[in-house]
Amino acid sequence: xxxxxxxxxxxxxxxxxxxxxxxxxxxxxxxxxxxxxxxxxxxxxxxxxxxxxxxxxxxxxxxxxxxxxxxxxxxxxxxxxxxxxxxxxxxxxxxxxxxxxxxxxxxxxxxxxxxxxxxxxx
Length: 122
Hints:
Blueprint: H1 4-17, H2 19-44, H3 88-94, H4 100-118
Helix pairs in contact: 1-2
């Protein structure tokens, strides 16, 4: 069926007659086999599961001291009930009417922004 002696003789004559081609062929076959083994090992290895990190609970070993912060000024309301309408006193405290120079400055800056946006648009 197989002539094993004939095949071995053919390989021997190939190595003797064409030495560089035989060495290159042997290297290619060896690299192919190593790659095949590496791929089989890679495919059969189990994938590593996701790494989980459990943060330990905080346990204070000393009394916690809060840093000194800015104090709240008198008359400052942290929370207040909103009203439908300001009283006359609240409007004087919290709202000031702008003068003409402030309005003109605002108008000029808005016009400048509009001109930058529009540019040379038709």
